Amino acid sequence: MEFSDEILLHILSYVPCTDLVLNVRKTCRKLATLCLDKSLTHTVLLQKDYKVNKDKVKQLMRDIGKEIYQLNMAGCYWLPSSTTDHVTRCKNLVKLNLSGCRITSLRLSKMLSTLQHLRSLAIDVNPGFDASQLSSECKATLSRVSELKQTLYTPSYGVVPCCTSLEKLLLYFEILDRSREGFMLSGQLMVGESNVPHYQNLRVFYARLAPGYVNQEVVRLYLAVLSDRTPENLHAFLISAPGSFAETGATKNLLDSMARNVRLDALQLPKAWLNGSGLLQHLKFNNPFYFSFSRCTLSGGHLIQRVINGGKDLKSLTSLNLSGCVHCLAPESLFRRAEDDIDSSILESLVVSCCNLRHLNLSAAHHHSSESIGNHLCQLLSRLKHLLSLALPVCSITDVAVSMEKPPTQPNAVPQTFGKKTRVGVQTYPRTLTDQACQKLESSVFWMLMRSLRCLETLEIIGSSFSSAMPRNEPAIRNSLPPCVRAQSVGDSEVAAISQLTYLQSLTLAQLPNIVTGSGLVSIGLQCQHLRTLSLANLGMMGKMVYMSALMDMLKHCKCLRDLRLEQPYFSAGSQFFQALSHCSSLQRLCIVSRSGTLQSDAVMSFMANCLEVIMCHMFMGESLTVCRNLQQSIVRRASAPTASSAPEVL
Fold it and tell me: What is d(CA 125, CA 31) in angstroms, rounded to the nearest whole number?
């Protein structure tokens, strides 16, 4: 308490606002004054504050409502819809996020009518929303809103037509093709949706589509207005659409108009709109900071000539997504096979021109380096000192000499002779790396890449042919393709190299076939103490989870881990695993996807009793439906007890 006010305010900034106002403020006079400082009450974040309830929100708004300028209640699904009524006390509110909150059009109208200073709004539009129920006072508030994020669960314009001063529009389309009763839905807007959006001041347009033809139909209605008159100040145009999203005459007119009238700083288009067209040749860019060409047939020649303008200085570019662009590092794609070596000069031009990149995605492609010294992909990427997130295919990080000298072993291969069969099984390996292995590791190109990117926070190493059994925006494929030949040599030593990333917060490893003991995972657990998100899928041989012992050792050191996702066939979630997982005291979300996997119900219950922060538990295993239902009921019954703060989501 003898610290200066500045130091105490900095410490208090790490405490949730509800805890500050409702608890800490009552301890002494000094803290009572500091907890009401404008720096702490200006922005209130209730998102992921799972211990907050309706009464706490009511008391919070009553105490500091007039001092709140930014309020984030995104994803507070456990709060009743009446909780939003208390937002009316925040008369000076400028930014409000209610995404994921249940709110009717009448309740929204009443709330917005009192928020005359509001400039940024995020809401959901659910079935039953009726824009005609919005009052004139509500529409007056919406007319002053310049930034809108709208998630659509039903075909509708939502409140967009009322926002006549829009500068930034973020649209998320989550409309199902069928109703809960099984009826096919239409992309036609609801009755009373005759008003059209106003885009004359628009600077940023972003649309993210979930799978389904209805989402595509509705987004075309939004784009039709843009095609009639493209805003002169538009500088960011981004559309993220999974699968096939065909180009129409209206969208073609829109893109032609953009090529003539605007200069962009950020661009993302569906692959069908870019493939085979000369659009990139005609679009003009100002100071671009974001490009996404995911799964486009973009060759390296086009990338250099049309995007980088033959090596033009693009220091402004901070994010580049080339995921699934199998030919982006090759001069031409006409006669090239996907597994051919890359052209290192293209990658070098990219690295030199875009030296300030912070986010780079090169996954879902075969990027094989040649044998020429100094031109390996990892060596070239090591020059990007500002990288914060990086996604690479497994086959791109292997040393060329190692992959050429040591052909991949096939543990499940069928003997080709009639002689005595060789017994197939898992050999015994040391749990830790030997000195010889460490020396070999430190000389590898991937080790040097990790050593040069010490500030990296997010890393993804994913097999080029990997397909999740439960993907978000892609069709599920039961039998995925085998790993790339060069990926066969990537194993424990490469995983151990990741432990050099001291500030790593998120790690994804998928389809690493040469994982034997998982010793590298233990090194990551010991060294990467800031790790919050961990996703592991299809490591080692598919028939057996050989790295279970190392994973349990790793989890004992992950004190900050919040999200864990495991996807592995034949995974046995027993008492030892959940006992190790109980050391992750900060864990909030757990997801296990395992074909033919097993679990022990009593071990799950013990884990849930020890890890009180868990709010989501998804386990897709091979157990019977009866076992799953009984376990789900037991967890919900325990979490619904009077001592529990909030019931977890169980599936």
Answer: 41
Q: Is the pLDDT of residue 465 over 90?
A: no
**CB 174 within 8 Å of CB 210:** yes
Q: Give the count of beta carbons closer than 10 Å to the beta carbon of residue 160.
A: 23
Dump pLDDT digits (tens) for 143-202.
999 999 999 999 999 999 999 999 999 999 999 887 777 777 777 765 445 466 778 899
Rounded Cα gap, residues 402 and 411, in angstroms: 19
Assign residue 29 a region: left if phi > 0, alpha if psi is -120 to 50, beta otherwise?
alpha
Q: Under a CB-based contact definition with an 8 Å cutoff, are residues 431 and 550 in contact? A: yes
DSSP letter, residue 97: E
> Do 169 and 157 meet the contact criterion of CB atoms below 8 Å apart?
no
Give the count of beta carbons closer than 10 Å to the beta carbon of residue 26: 10
Burial of residue 524, with CB atoms counted within 10 A of its CB: 0-12 exposed, 13-18 middle, 19 or more buried: buried
Residues 6+ apart with CB under 8 A from 151: 99, 100, 123, 124, 125, 171, 172, 174
CA distance 144 to 158: 16
Q: Which residues in 223-375 belong to E strands, given as ranges?
A: 236-240, 263-268, 284-292, 319-321, 359-361
CB 68 within 8 A of CB 636: no
Beta bridge partners of 169: 148, 205
Q: How far is CA 330 from the centre of its chain?
A: 28
Q: Which two structure tokens, joined as six digits, stand for 230? A: 């493209």
Cβ 50 vs Cβ 74: under 8 Å = no
**β-pair partners for 95:** 70, 120
Q: Contact, 501 vs 520, CB < 8 A? A: no
pTM: 0.88
CA–CA distance from 563 to each of 376, 507, 515, 571, 631 (Å)? 33, 10, 22, 18, 21
Q: Are 388 and 458 in contact (CB under 8 A)?
A: yes
Q: Which helix (H) or strand (E) holds 566?
A: strand 563-567
User: Distance (Å, rounded) from C-alpha 453 to C-alpha 51?
Assistant: 37
At 230 the three-state DSSP class reads: coil
Tokens 């990149």 appear where?
A: 357
Core vs surface per residue 425-464: b (16+ CB within 10 A) or e: eeeeeeeebeeeeeeebeebbbbbbbebbeebbbbbbbbb
Per-residue pLDDT reduced to its tens digit, 367-420? 999 877 778 999 999 999 999 999 999 999 998 765 555 444 444 433 333 344
Q: Count CB atoms within 10 A of the CB of residue 85.
A: 17
C-alpha to C-alpha distance for 362 and 387, rounded to whole angstroms: 13
Cα torsion for 194, 195, 196, 202, to the nearest 10°? -160
Q: Strand, helix or coil at 285?
A: strand
d(CA 41, CA 43): 6
Tokens of 448: 């040097």
Per the CB < 8 A criterion, the answer to whether 221 and 188 are in contact is no
Output DSSP code: residue 624. -
Under 8 Å between Cβ of 512 and 461: yes
Spatial separation of the C-alpha atoms in residues 163 and 175, rounded to whole Å: 22
| Residue at token pair 């009464």 | 55
Report helix, strand and coil shares of the chain as percent, to nearest 5.
Answer: 35, 15, 50
Q: Which residue has the higher pLDDT, 311 or 9?
A: 9
Backbone angles phi, psi at 235, to 5 degrees: -130, -5
Helices then strands (H, E): number in the chain?
23, 22
